[in-house]
Amino acid sequence: MNPPASASFTRTSVAVVGAGPAGLTVANLLRAAGIDCVVLEAESREFIEQRPRAGFIEEWAVRALARHGLAGRLLETAETQAQFEFRFDGRRHTFRTAELSGRRHFVYPQPLLVTDLVAAYVDEAGGDARFGVRDVRLHDIDGDRPAVSYTDPLTGARHHIACDVIAGCDGARGVTRAAIPAGRTVLTRYDHGVAWLALLAEAPPSAEGVVFGIHERGFGAHMARSPEVTRYYLQVPPGEDADDWPHARVWEELQTRLAAAGAPPLTEGPLREKVVLDMHNYVVEPMAYGRLYLAGDAAHLVAPIAAKGMNLAINDALLLAEALIAHHHGDDSGLAGYSDACLRRVWQYLEFSQWLSEVLHGASSGDRFRAGTAAARLRRLLGSRAAAEAFAGLYLGEEADL
């Protein structure tokens, strides 16, 4: 599809569609390597810097960002977590992840990371990022002249950007994956059969770090975010309406599902966010078609059960940026192997997320077999040092490619 004659025409090496952690990491690494790129984002800069998202970054990812000078504020301000707690059958069980694995989680919500990455790319490096763009389209992605076009939100003018490669980093509902012709990739989906009511409470944490509550009424979770704000989750039926969960009902269920001997009652507060999230995963294989390479949620979605999504996006971005830099110098082996390299970690994290889902949701499944096997997994996890070490390694993320 050729651009209209009236469209403005520019050229860059890489067009990055999407300004989330994946797209911005790619853009920063390319910019540092002296490779031209343009970032296109459908939302405003203000919106992406405030959009509520995940808050756990694995230590290997933090170290990788730090090597590229992209983790300054993160390392200065982020809290780390070295343990979490299971609560079930009215008892508390502390699981010391750092002691078992030698690694930690960094608590750093995605909006903060996005803010840092935008500042590094736009404000510090003078990178080209265009926010609020409309009607983004991809052209000739399987040919010799790939391009991306969009409409300027202020002027209504159409802009056409020719490039060598397109990085599709625009998430689950973006345009890049949809541009791949039917039948050229395979999308595999798995539904956990549950949903979580995601809650953000204006209340101080009631425990240190993460608490997983396993209860016959459903899973519940507490996750400290700041001295004033706490993230909670409640398992609810798929398709549930968040409006059916008023303040009093939410706190009654949280108090019940997270109760345990010796644990203080939860500190309650106003709920500033209530969103129902269906727990499902999908994977696109391969993560590339022609001159288009997908990264992050455009290529795979991992339910937030094990807090893996942002970490996979960073892994994709690091691999894609490395491959694009090599491509710029005439070596295409990295791009040829990009999808396979990413999918090794994707499938490992998906398997772990599925395993943990059974542990967390088995007791409330109504299925005696699932409940029994979930309880057996917990007993093994808490009673075997070898099982605990293996779990901690997966929970906190493996250092090397999987």
Automatic annotation (TrEMBL):
Domain of life where this protein originates: Bacteria
User: Could you list the residue ranges that cross the membrane?
Assistant: none
Matching InterPro entries, A to Z?
FAD-bd, FAD/NAD-bd_sf, PheA/TfdB_FAD_monoxygenase
SUPFAM superfamilies documented for this protein: FAD-linked reductases, C-terminal domain, FAD/NAD(P)-binding domain
Does the UniProt entry include the keyword Oxidoreductase? yes
E.C. designation(s) = 1.14.13.2
* Claim: Oxidoreductase is one of the keywords in the record: yes
Q: Main EC class of this protein?
A: oxidoreductase
Q: Which UniProt keywords apply?
A: Oxidoreductase
All residue ranges annotated as the FAD-binding domain in the record = 11-353
GO MF terms held by the record? 4-hydroxybenzoate 3-monooxygenase activity
**Known PANTHER family for this protein?**
3-(3-HYDROXY-PHENYL)PROPIONATE/3-HYDROXYCINNAMIC ACID HYDROXYLASE, FAD-DEPENDENT MONOOXYGENASE
Protein's recorded name: 4-hydroxybenzoate 3-monooxygenase
The species is Streptomyces bugieae
